[in-house]
Specification:
With 366 residues, the protein is mainly beta. It has helices at residues 2-8, 10-23, 46-60, and strands at 69-71, 87-91, 97-113, 117-124, 127-128, 131-136, 142-149, 156-158, 161-165, 168-183, 190-191, 197-203, 210-214, 221-225, 227-229, 252-264, 269-276, 298-304, 307-308, 324-329, 333-345, 359-365. Strands 1, 3, 5, 6, 7, 8 and 10 form a 7-stranded antiparallel beta sheet that branches. It has a 5-stranded antiparallel beta sheet with strand order 15-16-21-18-19, with no helix packed on it. A 4-stranded antiparallel beta sheet has the order 9-4-12-13, with no helix packed on it. The relative contact order is 0.14.
Amino acid sequence: MTLSLCASLWQACQYLQMKIAGSGRLEESPTAPQAVLPARHKKGNSRIRWSLSLWIAVALLPGTALAGSIEFPVNGTALEDLSFLRATVQSRDRGPGTFERTTNFADIKAQGIDCTATKTVTVNGTAVPGDPTTFKTNIEGLGVRFYASKGWQGGATLAPFTESLEPVSSLTGSFLLRAEEVVYGVLGSGVLTSLPSMNITFSGSCFPTVSRNQFIKPGTVVTLRSCSVTTPMVQVPMFPIRLSDLPVIGSTAGTTPFSLGLNCDRGIALYVTLTDASNLANRSTILSLATDSSASGVGLQILNGQTPVAYGPDSPLAGTPNQLAVGGYTAGGSMKVPLQVRYIRTGSNLGSGSVIGRATFTMSYQ
């Protein structure tokens, strides 16, 4: 509008611009625009021309277009959703770690990027406490990690992160986008309905900002493999022995077999942890006597094959101290875990009486 006014009212425009150049302020003059110019301007209008060109330059600046551009993805405005398997079966007590990964590649095109670009990769979700790169889902113990290309089209980098990108005159490539399902605690089961998402934003002074969200399709069904215990209470009557059967400390006698009964899904790595019910902190291979025992100087040992079993905490988590592997992967159906128990002399003063020990067992299905 300013330029069209100056074009139609040339004399008035000259007068006003002369006033700008002379005083630094725009003033309305009650006098007509044919006012006499100062003597130093009579021989030419170079200063008036300079003022007019300055006016035009300032008027055109707000409409200047950014030179560069980024297409991500090329010929589109949205990224294709990542997708996990529609159904997955996991062992109930499997340890922390990744069990599924899904990857897409999106075309990216950059033209005329003559400034430093900033790539910001964030995750929309709730991080697992103590792990800023794993984000919760609606299933207990199951999280998601995201990865995106390093640089313009490099290898996978764990999100979230921010980095600067070098200027490029022309680039066409593939941008990696990845998500992983991660177990970070005791795993639950159900249908994945609430999942985190990743955002990738390119920004800079020489191109319009481009921001895209990477989503994961919901609906994956997580089912757990496990076992049921068919012998929740195991009573082991032991044969009586003589004091002379345990002549020195460390002597053993009276070995008695017993077993734990289970019914298991197929494909489970089976583990068991025995806990001393009379002394929960016991990590030795000798089971403490219960308070209703009357014998002294003696204890009990449980054996897996010929190896004494050490006691541990009451926990099904993978890696629990003194957790015992009791076979390979289950074939499915009923099975037994064979064990033995025996007397062991623990003290120099050996006294006769009843010997009673109590232990609990915790199964872990990995």
